[in-house]
């Protein structure tokens, strides 16, 4: 049956649409501008001179100061910070994926005593929030293990928080048929070999998705590397180094460099986001659908 | 024999996860549960003091002020974030030109580091040469610069920053919930002559019920826990106006990082950490039971 549309039926409603539509678009436009405002200010600010930032001036830079990036890179150690961020994020993402993928594989395919307990503990670590308190014993432990003079201590702590990766990957394992493992085993492939040669390649989409989130977490992490690098500035990441500039004595004169540093930190994530925004959006949305 | 082999394989695959969880996840909790009964400043002897830390906690005005600030911060953030993100989700759930682009833009803040964008916001809201004041003055919207980070407005400023970072995330969660509402409900309501407002209150809200309950719970936990951006923008100041409880806790454990009047106290800090976890847990549980009951009424 073909229903007549609302608009044909009620001219009053159509008139109302002429009023509500522009209001809606105006609202959307304002919220979009507010969302983009700080990001645009960062990018534009990173291309202005220090004096221009201090005195106000126009939205656009008078002359585009691309050398701010050179200055930030050389003078304020941003080369070091960037390398530390890349190192920390890549290693901890790979580590998190490996640890979680192995655990989730056994949990999905096999039964063992204490399985419910293990899954329960993984789930509860996501809900207990005692704040910075855990950093203290973690820090002291790393000092004892002599892992505080490098970023490995931070990396281990980041990997230890692998419960959300574990649950994402567990979901992906369900879509890989069990017959595949069994067939491989019958052909004489051992457990470890089957996992690395057959299952892991099939898990690639899941690893990509979970890796994206692990990487975002590690790249943006602030308080953990801050605590671990207080006395060793050469280990600081982009987030820590940048926030330190804000506390520095010459902060007011360095706003343009701060903005250039902020861009160095934000832009790689934005590029990743633009390339993979479907994945970000689908997985985030999926977390409430259960 | 076969059984033993399977057990070995299982253990091998679970071992890294179990060890890391035990050593870096569980042990710190036990550490806290132990030292909250001790007087311990990080060096020297730890002295068992029973419940002294907790009686001190009840008398600690700075702590209770930070609890109050947490409620103001979390409440303000939720009151702005939830309606705004729900409204955006409803608008973007309709047939709209460019809605994928809009979703992408609104979600963008969630991929950006809170600490980094907080440095930017600090410069935006700075009262003397901040970009907001410069812009507002230029277009003669204000005569005097507004002291965004002063005692009067600092809380509002950190709430605005928090809302900026959160709206896109909750918009997306609401959108996921909206998409699970069957479309024909709206169609038949429209045929019956229900206008947009009626459809929203009588279909969208009730149908969204369980998902909304879950989203709000996540939002409550997140807003009580967040202190990273406050740490960067105001360091809890001025005069403690924006010091939330997790920031107060942080300063007890790592006082060297930010200008703070407290000295490091691991024993007392443990007690504060335990108390904050209990407060967050109680609020979450309270909300959970209340919203369950509300669900039954409607």
TrEMBL record, chain B:
UniProt KW keywords: Cell membrane, Membrane, Transmembrane, Transmembrane helix, Transport
Family of this protein: Belongs to the binding-protein-dependent transport system permease family.
All copies of domain ABC transmembrane type-1, residue ranges: 67-287
PANTHER family for this protein: ABC TRANSPORTER PERMEASE PROTEIN, INNER MEMBRANE ABC TRANSPORTER PERMEASE PROTEIN YCJO
Membrane topology: Multi-pass membrane protein
CDD domains: TM_PBP2
A Pfam family assignment: BPD_transp_1
Cellular localisation: Cell membrane
InterPro entries: ABC_transporter_permease (IPR051393), MetI-like (IPR000515), MetI-like_sf (IPR035906)
Gene Ontology annotations for the cellular component aspect, listed alphabetically: plasma membrane
Coiled coil: none
Residues annotated as transmembrane: 12-33, 71-92, 104-125, 154-178, 199-222, 266-290
Protein name per the record: Sugar ABC transporter permease
GO biological process: one example: transmembrane transport
């Amino acid at each position: 049956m073909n229903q007549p549309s609302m608009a044909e039926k009620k001219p009053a409603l159509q008139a109302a649409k002429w009023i509500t539509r522009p209001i809606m678009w105006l609202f959307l436009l304002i919220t979009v501008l507010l969302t983009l405002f700080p990001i645009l200010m960062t990018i534009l600010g990173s291309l202005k001179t220090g004096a221009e930032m201090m005195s106000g001036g126009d939205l656009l830079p008078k002359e585009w100061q691309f050398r701010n990036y050179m200055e930030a890179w050389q003078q304020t150690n941003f080369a070091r910070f960037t390398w530390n961020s890349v190192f920390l994020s890549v290693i901890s993402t790979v580590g998190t994926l490996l640890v979680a993928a192995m655990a989730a594989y056994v949990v999905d395919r096999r039964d063992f005593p204490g399985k419910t307990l293990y899954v329960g503990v993984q789930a509860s670590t996501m809900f207990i929030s005692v704040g910075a308190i855990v950093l203290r014993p973690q820090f002291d432990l790393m000092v004892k293990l002599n892992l505080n003079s490098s970023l490995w201590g931070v990396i281990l702590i980041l990997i230890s928080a692998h419960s959300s990766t574990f649950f994402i990957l567990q979901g992906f394992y369900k879509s890989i048929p069990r017959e595949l493992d069994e067939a491989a085993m019958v052909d004489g492939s051992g457990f470890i070999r089957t996992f690395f040669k057959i299952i892991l390649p099939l898990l690639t989409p899941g690893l990509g998705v979970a890796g994206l989130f692990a990487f975002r977490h590690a790249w943006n992490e602030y308080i953990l590397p801050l605590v671990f690098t207080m006395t060793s500035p050469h280990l600081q990441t982009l987030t820590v180094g940048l926030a330190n500039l804000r506390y520095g004595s010459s902060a007011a004169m360095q706003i343009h460099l701060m903005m250039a540093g902020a861009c160095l930190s934000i832009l790689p994530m934005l590029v990743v986001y633009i390339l993979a925004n479907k994945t970000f959006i689908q997985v985030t949305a999926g977390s409430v659908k259960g | 024999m076969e059984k033993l082999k399977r057990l070995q394989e299982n253990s091998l695959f679970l071992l890294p996860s179990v060890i890391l969880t035990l050593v870096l996840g569980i042990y710190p909790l036990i550490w806290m549960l132990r030292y909250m009964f001790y007087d311990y400043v990080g060096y020297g002897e730890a002295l068992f003091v029973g419940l002294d830390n907790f009686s001190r906690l009840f008398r600690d005005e700075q702590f209770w002020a930070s609890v109050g600030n947490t409620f103001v911060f979390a409440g303000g953030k939720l009151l702005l974030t939830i309606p705004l993100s729900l409204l955006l989700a409803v608008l973007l759930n309709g047939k709209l030109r460019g809605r994928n682009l809009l979703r992408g833009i609104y979600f963008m803040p969630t991929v950006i580091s809170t600490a980094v964008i907080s440095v930017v916001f600090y410069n935006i809201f700075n009262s003397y040469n901040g970009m907001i004041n410069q812009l507002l003055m230029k277009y003669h919207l204000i005569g005097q610069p507004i002291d965004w980070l002063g005692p009067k407005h600092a809380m509002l400023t950190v709430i605005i920053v928090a809302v900026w970072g959160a709206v896109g995330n909750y918009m997306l969660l609401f959108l996921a919930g909206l998409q699970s509402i069957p479309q024909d409900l709206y169609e038949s309501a429209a045929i019956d002559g229900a206008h947009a407002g009626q459809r929203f209150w009588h279909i969208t809200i009730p149908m969204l019920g369980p998902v909304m309950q879950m989203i709000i719970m996540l939002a409550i936990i997140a807003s009580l826990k967040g202190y990273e951006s406050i740490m960067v923008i105001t360091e809890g100041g001025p005069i403690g106006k924006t010091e939330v409880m997790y920031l107060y806790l942080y300063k007890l454990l790592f006082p060297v990082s930010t200008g703070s009047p407290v000295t490091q106290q691991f024993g007392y800090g443990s007690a504060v950490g335990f108390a904050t976890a209990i407060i967050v847990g109680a609020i979450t549980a309270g909300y959970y039971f209340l919203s369950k009951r509300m669900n039954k009424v409607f």
